[in-house]
Design brief:
alpha+beta, Diaminopimelate Epimerase, Chain A, domain 1, 2 domains, 18-stranded mixed β-sheet, about 15% helix
Length: about 270
């Protein structure tokens, strides 16, 4: 029986089935097959699936799908995992490579320390208030910020008090965000310092993920813009793993934008073809 090698990787609990495009071409992956492999009871289990394709020396394209089989332009934690795996497979130099996604081209590199990587994102427009969304009890103003994909960011008084599945689903599908909706990110800023806590209801997964890299970037920009936290800012994902966001804000954009975090290999295996 022919078999396809795969890598199971995690970015702060946001987990992926990763494939080398030289051995598993993109065309082999239908939405149904992606759903089957990502199924947590009947398959490998993952929030998404990634195929890495070399497009030249130190240039790697990241094809990404959510676990429901839908393609997405960008996923920050998948990009960090792709960086680590591309360096391991010899597709890119650890000290720097170009990553191509549906949201554009990014510089990326591995970092010192185990399993760490960093992603240099392009400038992001300053977040805007979503006028059609009224804060619920314990919530502050909602902002939308597009970091590869659209993110709603809401600061809350108590992260444990929110109904993540109920309120998250409501906001993810809110009419004010358009037909495609957005990921819903909830953040709580500790009064005594320390990392900002963040939880995410992610579209395509349609539930909570243990980390969301681009959502964390959006949250960092919102907190800096509103004067709640200076950049760089450390975050603690739902998994307990750290992420760091650094940037510089201008009147209209966040520039010099970096996301740092985990891209850890969990195990390797083979899929029957």
């Amino acid at each position: 029986m022919a078999r396809t090698p795969f890598f199971k990787m995690t970015g702060s609990g946001n987990d992926f089935v990763m494939l080398d495009g030289r051995k598993s071409p993109v065309g082999q992956w239908s939405p149904g097959r992606i759903r089957a492999v990502c199924d947590r009871r009947m398959g490998v289990g993952a929030d998404g699936l990634v195929v890495l394709v070399s497009e030249g020396p130190d240039v790697v394209r990241m094809h990404f799908w959510n676990c429901d089989g839908s393609p997405a332009d960008m996923c920050g934690n998948a990009a960090l995992c792709t960086t680590r795996l591309a360096a391991t497979l010899g597709l890119g130099q650890p000290e720097g490579m170009t990553l191509i996604t549906g949201a554009g081209r990014f510089r990326t590199r591995t970092e010192a320390g185990p399993d760490q990587a960093a992603l240099n994102l392009p400038a992001v427009p300053i977040p805007t208030v979503v006028s059609g969304i009224s804060p619920a009890q314990g919530e502050r103003q909602a902002y939308v910020c597009t970091v590869g994909v659209p993110h709603l960011v809401v600061e809350v008084d108590d992260l444990e008090a929110i109904d993540l599945m109920g309120r998250g689903r409501e906001l993810r599908n809110h009419p004010a965000l358009g037909a495609s909706g957005a990921n819903a990110n909830f953040v709580a800023v500790p009064t005594g310092g320390g990392p900002v806590e963040i939880r995410t209801y992610e579209r395509g997964v349609e539930g909570e993920t243990l980390a969301c890299g681009t959502g964390t970037v959006a949250a960092g920009i919102v907190l800096a813009m509103t004067g709640r936290r200076a950049l760089p800012t450390d975050f603690r994902s739902r998994s307990g793993r750290p992420l760091r966001v650094s940037a510089r804000l201008t009147d209209s954009q966040a520039v010099d934008l970096w996301l740092g975090g985990e891209g850890r290999l969990v195990f390797e295996g083979e899929l029957p073809d």
